[in-house]
Design goal:
Layout (H helix, E strand, L loop, with lengths): L8 H16 L4 H7 L2 H43 L25 H6 L14 H9 L3 H9 L8 E24 L3 E27 L2 E19 L8 E11 L2 E10 L7 E10 L10 E6 L5 E6 L10 E12 L2 E12 L2 E3 L12 E4 L3 E11 L4 E12 L3 E4 L5 E2 L5 E13 L5 E9 L7 E10 L1
Antiparallel strand pairs: 1-2, 1-19, 2-3, 3-4, 3-5, 5-6, 6-9, 7-8, 9-10, 10-13, 11-12, 12-15, 13-14, 14-17, 15-16, 17-18, 18-19
Length: 455
């Protein structure tokens, strides 16, 4: 017998009534054999058919309620700006509320169909829905990964390439003023142009949901052009020499620890600690080539035979980073301190005619920065930031002599950075960065690209 069932509140009521009738009509088999009639058997068959039909309708309504609820949740999340329209499956859904009905009979409960499997764009269980609700939009996750404040990835392999341009001119006066107006002596213009290409291999390992360990191993190619005016005593003559250098840079091992998660009133706060090993070529003890001497055998122009790739000393750093999401903006900042340890070298003098062993203590540095990023869509975000590093003067001493500060070794390096992140795939992201130097000690500009790949 075929009947047409209607979806709505009456379906649940009919199910409860039929279940009650089915329970009431059940009698022990012995009694049924004694009192059964053809009319009773026909009624039982009819009720059984009605019960099976209502169970099928009930299961269909539960599936439909689940789908409608998830679609509503996805639309609400998109309107709130939490997830993009392209990936509704990433939106968390609330647990589907079951219709208020009387409990079905045991037979009906056992025969009810299980919830449908997860479909494209929908979470199939409450656990999946809760996990999806906590999942960050991709563009936000990429920004946090760039600031090393992302802790939901097990392993990330990153390849990066950065180009730095540095150009500095200096006017040198060697003489004295006569009559407070006429300069008597040598005037020389010194110019140093440096180009550095830095390939950096990095690995990020998420040890726990609150701790990430990092390894950064750079490889550098450097070319420096030295120019000096007044060669040979002629003011118009310019001498020029070029030197290069390449090799492994200083390797850094660091860790990030999530101290405070983000909530409505405070940003996410991360502790950063790291140590840098002097694995690169130090700038001390490199042979120098003399290009010009004056009549008194004084060296007027000399250049190193090769360029260094490291600073030659161990360094330790500690800092704090903070990130606050304020849709559609992401605010972030950091502050930290780097301590340089003393190091001993066989020759700390750049005079090619002498060898003077001694100790060097590079200046400690204090750094800070702040920026803002905007998530344009699920794949793309744009950021602007300012970073600044203040370095104290370095000190050095020859064996058996007191410490002396190196004049001109202190620095104030400030950069204005523009960055773009773009999701290439579910696992890979491309990060582009342009840095513009704001102080004489900073590079003229930097251009970099990084491709982190999460496994």
């Amino acid at each position: 017998m075929s009947r047409k069932t209607t979806a709505g509140p009456s379906t649940a009521l009919r199910l409860a009534v039929v279940s009650a009738l089915a329970t009431a009509s059940f009698v022990p088999p012995a009694c049924a054999q004694a009192a059964s009639t053809p009319a009773d058997e026909a009624e039982l068959r009819q009720l059984t058919e009605d019960l099976a039909e209502l169970k099928a309708a009930y299961a269909q309504e539960v599936r439909r309620l689940r789908e409608l609820d998830m679609q509503v949740q996805a639309l609400q999340a998109r309107l709130a700006g939490k997830v993009p329209a392209a990936t509704p499956g990433a939106v968390g859904t609330a647990t589907v509320a079951a219709p208020i009905v009387a409990a079905p009979a045991p037979a009906a409960a056992a025969a009810a169909e299980p919830p449908p499997p997860s479909q494209a764009g929908y979470a199939s269980t409450a656990a999946e829905a809760e996990a999806a609700r906590k999942e960050l939009p991709r563009s936000v996750a990429d920004v946090k990964q760039a600031t090393r404040t992302l802790f939901n990835q097990r392993l990330v392999i990153e390849n990066g390439l950065t180009y730095n341009r540095y150009d500095r001119k200096q006017l040198t006066l060697n003489g004295f003023l006569a009559l407070d107006a006429i300069f008597l002596g040598n005037i020389a213009i010194e110019n140093v142009e440096s180009d550095t290409m830095n390939y950096n291999f990095a690995a990020r390992w998420g040890v726990t949901p609150k701790l990430t360990l990092n390894l950064d191993a750079p490889y550098l190619w450097r070319k420096t052009v030295y120019q000096k005016g007044g060669a040979g005593g002629a003011a118009a003559a310019i001498a020029q020499e070029e030197t290069t250098g390449s090799g492994l840079g200083d390797i850094t091992v660091s860790g990030n620890y999530l101290m405070l998660p983000e909530n409505n009133g405070r940003p996410e706060t991360v502790l950063n600690v790291g140590i840098t090993a002097p694995t690169g070529q130090e700038p001390y003890g490199i042979p120098w080539t003399v290009l010009e001497r004056d009549d008194d055998d004084f060296i007027r122009f000399a250049v190193p035979d090769e360029q260094p790739t490291g600073n030659g000393a161990w360094q330790a750093s500690v800092g704090v980073s903070a990130v606050k999401t304020s849709d559609p903006a992401i605010l972030y900042g950091n502050i930290g301190y780097t301590y340089s340890f003393e190091a001993s070298f066989d020759d700390i003098d750049n005079n090619p005619d002498t060898v003077n062993p001694g100790d060097v203590k590079l200046g400690d540095s204090f750094y800070f920065g702040a920026g803002v990023a905007f998530a344009f869509n699920e794949r793309t975000s744009f950021s602007m930031s300012l970073s600044n590093r203040l370095s104290a003067r370095a000190r050095m001493r020859y064996d058996g002599q007191p410490w002396n500060k190196v004049i001109g070794s202190d620095a104030n390096s400030a950069l204005f950075n523009l960055g773009v992140t773009y999701a290439l795939s579910d696992h890979a992201t491309m990060v582009g960065l342009l840095g513009i130097g704001l102080t004489p000690d900073a590079p003229d500009f930097t251009l970099g690209f990084r491709v982190p790949y999460s496994l």
